[in-house]
Amino acid sequence: MASDITITRAEGTWVVRAGGAVLGESADALELTEGDMPPVIYFPRDDIAMAFLDATDHSTRCPHKGDASYFSIVTKSRTLENAAWSYENPKDDVARIKDHLAFYTSDAVAVEQL
């Protein structure tokens, strides 16, 4: 694994909300820490209401994790462009995040531990 990336089980139950709706809740989330950046919570895809997410054409590449695919969150009042991402085929060293989603937090998206 890249020496500056650690993946651990996120303690407790985590929830992601957008536009007043709960998009997901999980007791099986992962916490990824990379260097000195804030930790990121990755939710198992099975714990997310995928009906609220639309895949986009946006992608990015991380030298340690691989290619990220992005999703927009569709709420009642607006679409939050590229607000979530997933590594569909992550590099072997971070394979635990496969089939997981992470979310950019903002005034419209909250990721919280219950």
From TrEMBL:
<dbReference type="InterPro" id="IPR038694">
    <property type="entry name" value="DUF427_sf"/>
</dbReference>
<protein>
    <submittedName>
        <fullName>DUF427 domain-containing protein</fullName>
    </submittedName>
</protein>
<dbReference type="InterPro" id="IPR007361">
    <property type="entry name" value="DUF427"/>
</dbReference>
<dbReference type="Pfam" id="PF04248">
    <property type="entry name" value="NTP_transf_9"/>
</dbReference>
<feature type="domain" description="DUF427">
    <location>
        <begin position="15"/>
        <end position="105"/>
    </location>
</feature>
